Amino acid sequence: xxxxxxxxxxxxxxxxxxxxxxxxxxxxxxxxxxxxxxxxxxxxxxxxxxxxxxxxxxxxxxxxxxxxxxxxxxxxxxxxxxxxxxxxxxxxxxxxxxxxxxxxxxxxxxxxxxxxxxxxxxxxxxxxxxxxxxxxxxxxxxxxxxxxxxxxxxxxxxxxxxxxxxxxxxxxxxxxxxxxxxxxxxxxxxxxxxxxxxxxxxxxxxxxxxxxxxxxxxxxxxxxxxxxxxxxxxxxxxxxxxxxxxxxxxxxxxxxxxxxxxxxxxxxxxxxxxxxxxxxxxxxxxxxxxxxxxxxxxxxxxxxxxxxxxxxxxxxxxxxxxxxxxxxxxxxxxxxxxxxxxxxxxxxxxxxxxxxxxxxxxxxxxxxxxxxxxxxxxxxxxxxxxxxxxxxxxxxxxxxxxxxxxxxxxxxxxxxxxxxxxxxxxxxxxxxxxxxxxxxxxxxxxxxxxxxxxxxxxxxxxxxxxxxxxxxxxxxxxxxxxxxxxx
Amino acid sequence: xxxxxxxxxxxxxxxxxxxxxxxxxxxxxxxxxxxxxxxxxxxxxxxxxxxxxxxxxxxxxxxxxxxxxxxxxxxxxxxxxxxxxxxxxxxxxxxxxxxxxxxxxxxxxxxxxxxxxxxxxxxxxxxxxx
Lengths: 487, 130
Known about the structure:
The structure holds two protein chains of two kinds.
Chain A: H1 46-58, H2 80-86, H3 89-92, H4 104-121, E1 125-127, H5 133-150, E2 158-162, H6 169-175, E3 179-183, H7 193-199, E4 204-210, H8 222-231, E5 235-239, E6 259-261, H9 264-267, E7 282-284, E8 296-300, E9 303-307, H10 326-364, E10 368-369, E11 380-383, H11 385-391, H12 395-404, E12 411-412, E13 421-424, H13 432-451, H14 453-457, H15 470-475
Parallel strand pairs in A: 2-3, 2-4, 4-5, 5-6
Antiparallel strand pairs in A: 1-7, 6-7, 8-9, 10-11, 11-13, 12-13
Helix pairs in contact in A: 2-10, 4-10, 5-6, 10-13
Chain B: E1 9-10, E2 15-19, E3 25-29, H1 31-37, E4 40-44, E5 51-52, E6 57-63, E7 67-71, E8 76-81, H2 91-94, E9 103-107, H3 119-129
Antiparallel strand pairs in B: 1-2, 2-3, 3-9, 4-6, 5-8, 6-7, 8-9
């Protein structure tokens, strides 16, 4: 395998004409700010550049090439239409500092996106500005904090987080200055209500819930939880990681949530391979409206305008220079417009149908479900404890072997409360024959493990690289290329 | 079956405790715990002099699979931290009861140690958990 880095193709003086520097148009920069040495950039020909990145792209294991049932990540198809329309020249050429009068088209899209998100989540106001899910979470809990402070309610120091919540929730609570208290999950997959009652109190600022949770079931106790936390003066935060499961069916606003973040890059199908860019829009109920992060798009008559600190003096502030990841927001906007209300319901129906079909087929094939008595929401957990004990092959071995069978591995070893688990989310995009193919691959791997477990443990065999040493990679971080470090 | 030395005390969070002659106690995670976590890649330890109550998280053990808090089996002051783990966290995997110890503490109230399990009780506890 071992392709060179683009830097290792570099030879002094080599140029790609498309990227060759122009004669500087600005020549009045003060002398003291000019750099003395050229930046460390690769000097390569255009053909070398094209070949390098084309080869890399051919190694992609992506939703465009393979079934990608990565639980909790909602790796659904990204329709080409969304990309095409978001790339219209009027959008691409718009300068973020351009006057409002020149951006009415873009602003109308953002306004309508806010309105559609409000309608589908049951929230009262939406801000699109957070740049990713983590920032959306941060904005949400920062608003909870601002709310308590504005009421001079300063002793609330704790955020409650169920152990089946999304993994980033404890980090968010901590980043916002709260201490985190974990609530256990009962055997049926719902939050343990008695445990919640035992720890809720005047110190409770709020609870962060993912519903459906990361164990792939809809928490049936949500109304009771909402009552318990609200009556103690706390607020409810909805992590939108699994919104795809309930889209157009149940609104978090109706479940009693005060604030929600949505991953537009999951539920609303903008590309999110390779870490982004994402979009973590936030929605709020009446209690938190005045704290929203800015800017928000408002409408006066038939004119759109940016709402700023003058409109929201208690805002938690700005999280990005302009309107979040505008190109991502546009793609989500087109996706929602193409689907409409009925289409959004079909998304969650087909996501649930696909997950339950796959779950049943795997169960019939003898794989053990973590919550066999529950219907899957849009994802579910298989535990390979038995395969590990009897055959000596782990969830990670299955994951690596699936790659050789042409399937991206599901999420492995998460959530932490289920041993040897695969968290499987097929999404609504997949055809029945692809789901059947995945089941056949799982069966084939198990048969292989019975015949010769060493073969499964040695997988993958057909990928550009074999089994990576993730332990060594984590123990000896080596992330920065330096000239002369290789060759 | 995991290794459970007879001369140690155990907590339900899979820490072991070894009493020293001077009244202090060495704490680590059990063979079962290191096996469940897998290869450790990072260990976050407290500073000597830190004070913890029983049940407080005093550190974090991180593997490629998971990061887990390590909880104080009793309250007291941290006297010493195993600094060898900064560069070689794998000692917890290879020698959990020896070179892979985590911290040494001075218990604030020795009576808190009475609540810990002996080796036989911990073995039963593991069987029940499985």
